[in-house]
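ok so for the tutorial part 2 we go from a plain amino acid sequence to predicted structure tokens. step 1 is just haveing the sequence, like this:
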Amino acid sequence: MTEITVDANLPPAVERFVLQWGDMGGQWGVNRSVAQIHALLYLAERPLTAEAIAETLGMARSNVSTSLRELTGWKLVRRVPVLGDRRDHYEAETDLWEMVTRIAQGRKEREIDPAAAALRACRAAAEGDPRVSAVAKRRLAEMEAFVATLSRWYDQMLGVPAPKIMALIRMGSRVVNFLSFGRGGKGGAADA
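step 2 — the prediction. this is what the tokens look like for a chain of 192 residues:
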């Protein structure tokens, strides 16, 4: 693995953010280089060229190009023109809610949707197979219903304006208490 060294000219806080974002990206299944480039562009005051990114982060230019393509595919980074310069410049999406929404949508398309399709196929195959026990059929149906419910919830949340979702998030456990409708329980599944 290529060790990535951040340019010593970056302020320490920016360098730390770039390195930490890269580490977190690795934990989330995102290539460290991709995450570090995203972090650098997110904090950049102006669009940067691939050459400037490579130099700043001590990365190979080919690695930067590949990473920028991936970030562009996720719609987290966009190419922007700069007057008087024919080179491509890049800037990151800086609206946090938009950024999170795009990441969630990409992950849903790459991970949840294929899992839901596989569950539908497994459940359908199990229904027509007398060798599959009733318990296995029931559990497959429950899992398929659960994933479908989460998928519908996600699709519904996309239509809710960001300020309303943020208000809901800030309410935290008060929402659970409200939904328990005064039953004295903790609002868990047993109370529903």
